[in-house]
Amino acid sequence: MTRRQIPALLPALPGFLVLLCAIMAGCAPRGGAATVDPRQAAIAEHQEEMKAAVSAVKPALVRIRVVSPYYRDGREQKSVSFGSGAIISPDGYVITNHHVAGDAVQLVCTLATREEVPAVLVGTDPATDIAVIRLEPNSPRTFPHAEFGDSDLLEVGDPVLALGSPQAISQSATLGIVSNTEMITPPSFRNMRLELDGEDVGELVRWIGHDAAIFRGNSGGPLVNMEGRIVGVNEIGIGLGGAIPGNLANQVARELVERGEVRRAYTGMVFQPLLKGDELDEGVTVASVLADSPAKAAGVEPGDVLVSIAGQRLKGQFAEDLPGINNLIAELPIDETVEAVFLRDDEERTITMTTQRRQRALMPQTELREWGMTARDLSVWTQLDLARDTAEGVYLTSTRSGGPVAQARPELRRGDVIVALNGREVRGIGELKEFSAEALEGKGEGEFVPVIVTFEREAESQLALVQIGIESLPDPGRDVRRGWLPMETQVLTREVAAAMNMEDTRGVRVTRVYSERPEDYPFEVGDIITHMDGLVVDASRPVDAEVFETMVRQYRAGIEADFTVLRNGEEHTLQAEIQQAPRRAREMERYRDLDFEFVLREAAFNDRQRPVFAGVVFAVLVDGVTSGGWADLAGLRGGDAVLKIQGEPISTLGDVEQVMEDIRASKPATVVIFVRRGSQNLFLELEPTW
After folding, report:
1. What's the CATH class of domain 587-686?
2. Which CATH superfamily, name and number, covers 265-357?
3. Using one digit for the tens of pLDDT, what is the confidence trace for 401-424?
């Protein structure tokens, strides 16, 4: 381990004693006179400042447990992740990253006291990757909070602390120095572009680069100066850590608290640094002018050099200058006319343009279960990408294999835009949901309604017939009841027979007896059955495993049969009544819950015979759990025996249905399912958002 690595261990040491360890590691003599590592000397010099800085911010640190949706295969699925944040007001507002909490459907914060407090999303801004959440304690209270410092005062070489929850370890800190105060994604590294919900974060953010170790889970945690003030919000790690400057983060957070959103001006100009051949010392190159934008209407063209706007001179010689220019334009008054000066063919021209409010890059997604797809409304940006004349319609983002739109002919697929249903224009998700509700009113599972869908695929307008509805569980059906003996057997192979000095013997060996009173049953484990009603049990190879079972199945239940058995080297003739074969697992009735996304079934005979369930009375098993659903997040697994739901004993599938109806009516914050898994009992907590 190098001395350089020691500060990264800080999360693992209580009370932040890593500082002392670092000093000792740096100053330990080896041989002659002691040498002092300059880094460790700096640590020693600032030790008290560091302790004070940590003490100032640590009470405001929170670990954030986030349940977020993601959309794939025509479904909304959910996942659990962890991030960091800092309380920034006495009433419990917390700043973090958009990519941590911006899409959350459920938030729980762990405070410095280890107390867990639920939280709600106040507002989020993917363009700067900042989100604000608010703690929601059971009763009003005042929270310890951290203050912002002035991030513009940071200089390269300043010591900083990255606080947060690396790898979900709460209340941890690492030490480093500011490496770069204007860090951007290098233009040649376009694969490193940070895009969130369609927004390029690098358009507005110049990161504070630092070498304090950060890991997964540090996102959203504060970067702190030696005065114990927030100067950044940690976001990325690309060798160096990258923090959103505190001044920008604080500005965005204030607007989110006040309005729940960030409002920005839009002109439709996309910039790049001045071209080297321009030999200019001010201005910025206009690379693109978007269609139907204020700049387009004002006559701006690609290649123009914008010199000033709204009286503010621009200097965009380098890529590092662009975020500042983009922020300047974003802060212009919305829906107001501004004057712009630009150069074209070495001539200076003055124009006016009326700004618009900038729309979000991508609209939220939603699942449309009865269609078997996920979709979103179109934004202006999506409209531009698709080269459409309007943003009306519903954009498909994924489809479920075997679902209604996937079975349509032609099959609908990702990227198609639905514009009409049965000739009725559809302008967005809301109208599509309204149409679906009307069409399926009074319909149950397994009842489908045909809909003629008009959709656009690239430049074509096509029609498809889609049968919309909720698929019912398949009928398990029933096998014909055959003869059966309550026991298990294995083939007596030639090799085993020879080893037992029974070279010419064919048959099966009894391996298990299911009778509740084995003493009343004629067979015993170890018996070798050679004949049934005088017929040879012709089994001597592993592939003959079904021979004896097939012979038994030929008999009706209630008939007695004679069996020739070898027991301890002696031959016996036993009589046993053929019984009716129990129903198999695939034949049992099932219950599906669409809200929590699990399937339960009646327990079959073989389920109850599993050794791990010995002595356990149960009637219902988990048959399946859909990935990414609430049951999956709670840890429910296929094969679990369900004993109770919300404290109610489960004896039949009817009990399950009644309890789940009561749960949907009362909408509790937590649904507890008591299960038997293997040799253990477990209480599983499902935490839905209703």
Report:
1. mainly beta
2. PDZ domain (2.30.42.10)
3. 999 999 998 999 999 999 999 999
